[in-house]
Amino acid sequence: MSVDNVARQANEAIIDAFSNVDVIADGHEPVRGIFTSPSEIAKLDGGGFVDAQRGTLIVKSAEAGHLERRTAITLQFENGTRQSHLVVLPENDGSGRLKLALGQENVGDTSSNQPESSSISY
């Protein structure tokens, strides 16, 4: 058995054991994944905060080839809650694991994000 096969089997076993979310994308069967969102928040001396890290999702690459950049996904958690995200950056490490950096999706917003005119006065 090659090292690549051992790594692939180990990654699949880890995802099976620690998956905590169903990943739903239109037109595809749900896949299981490991979702982490550490919400690392850095406090600023002058007040406020900076969200320092995006949520990530790890899935089996063999099951999730359809999850490409800008794919809208819904995460269905075991407690019944749902979150909508966009895939920002998919990273396939070649060992059976696909790591996805996630961004927020503007659910239901089909309008342009740019206003017709600026509301800023100089």
From TrEMBL:
This is Uncharacterized protein. The lineage of its organism: Bacteria, Pseudomonadati, Pseudomonadota, Gammaproteobacteria, Vibrionales. Residues 107-122 have a biased composition (Polar residues). It comes from Photobacterium alginatilyticum. It comes from the Bacteria. Residues 103-122 are annotated as: Disordered.
